[in-house]
Each structure stands twice: as C-alpha cells, then as structure tokens.
Design goal:
This protein is an alpha+beta fold. It has one domain: Sandwich (Hypothetical Protein Aq_1857, Chain: A). The chain has 2 helices and 9 strands. The strands form 2 sheets. A 6-stranded mixed beta sheet has the order 4-5-2-3-9-8. The radius of gyration is 15 Å and the shape is globular.
Length: 116
Amino acid sequence: MVETYTPSLMQLSDGAVQKILSLKSDEANSPQLNLRVYVTGGGCSGFQYGFSFDDVVEEDDTCIENGGANLVVDSLSLQYLQGSTVDYIEDLTGSKFIISNPNATTTCGCGESFSI
C-alpha cells in the first residue's frame, strides 16, 4: 500500500483542539469563536507570537479546522508559521498555547519569541 503525504499549512494538536472547544462552549454568545495566531515584531529574538480569540475571519485569513476547532492566521503571519503546530499545555509554570515552529532558527527561553 502506498501512503501519500499531504503537507498542511499548520496543525492544531489534540490539546489545542480540546481547549478551543472548551472556551467556545464557555462563550455561549460566540459559537464561531476562532483562535487567531499572529506574528509581530519584538520579543527577545526578533519576532513574537500572539494569540487572541476572534469571531471575525478577514478576507486574507487562512483557516485551519480540526475537530470543530478553528485556527485563523493572517497572510503576513502565515509566511513565518507555515508548517507549525499549535499546542496547549498545562504545567507548573501555568497554562498556555505554544507553537512548535520548524522555521525558527532560534527561540528565547520562554518560547514566545523567535528569529528566522
């Protein structure tokens, strides 16, 4: 049997999907809630990741869906995030969404900024 590999723009981990769905259920007035991921200048390594929740999808946004959870990325940020995986973790330092970015050549200690 031959398997084919279809690269995806970005992926949502199971943990991220579960958290997004949980937050969507908490926001009864906004069932179309999307996790928006973006890149801005700054941070200790040059660029930094940003997360927000948004119920608006702009014309140039790319939408990634997994199990009913939606990830939205603007076209400028997508060039830096292509091939990345968004995950949600809970540990001793707290809980947060994180990005595993194969394009990043260096990252800071907190994982919130990177350079290419």
